[in-house]
Amino acid sequence: MKILLLEDNVNLAEIIKEMLEEKGHTVDWFDDGETALFESAHGYDCFVLDIHVPTMDGIALLKEIRQREKRTPAIIISANIELETIQKAYIAGCHDYLKKPFYMYELERKIDLLCSANERLKLQDGLSYDPKDELLYDASNEVMKLTLKERRLMALLAKTPNIIVSIEHIEQYVWEGEDVGIAGLRSLVKRLRTKLCEKSIETQNYGYRLVVVSSHYK
């Protein structure tokens, strides 16, 4: 799982980062809000945000993120225990609010519960997709082989099913910002469509969306 951590306390950030990486997660740590905002579009599975950080506070950052996508779980960590601040955090779109100081186990459990999805997405033609393990299943429940870039594209589109993902975000996530060109992107989408079905990935405006029949498929 890829996690964005916003925390300006270096010692705390290093402890959190080490703990999560020992669990097998990838953690990108930022100590100021504006940098975190710029990087937040790069396909994260979970946001862990402090409030009082330089350039842009965590709640303001979360508001900006929610204008782009609504689903990715977000956990606010803060020493601020004022009810008004906690309310603002939930209104902005956080899923949980963890008050400092806290045990690392508390944060670990919240991330496991909120960010590790256990449900498959039901696709057309009997296919299904497991966002947690990034596995695509055919109608017989057999795992289908995907190349690395096909897998990354599928994982990104599945983060916001039935919602358009821009070409820019796809390039940043799949090719990590490398200039691939529209022909390369279209070729990748075409290959993935052949493993799903033609109508499973729709082209709309300047992006693509994964057409999901249901997000509650076990």
UniProtKB/TrEMBL annotation:
GO terms (BP aspect): regulation of DNA-templated transcription
Keyword Transcription: yes
Keyword list, A-Z: DNA-binding, Phosphoprotein, Transcription, Transcription regulation, Two-component regulatory system
4-aspartylphosphate PTM sites in chain numbering: D50
MF term (GO), any: transcription cis-regulatory region binding
Portion annotated as DNA-binding: 118-212
Cellular compartments per GO CC: cytosol; protein-DNA complex
KW Zinc (keyword) present: no
Residue ranges of every copy of the OmpR/PhoB-type domain listed in the record: 118-212
Pfam (any one): Trans_reg_C
Entry-linked Gene3D superfamilies: 3.40.50.2300, Winged helix-like DNA-binding domain superfamily/Winged helix DNA-binding domain
Domain Response regulatory residues, every copy: 2-115
UniProt superkingdom: Bacteria
Protein name (record): Two component response regulator
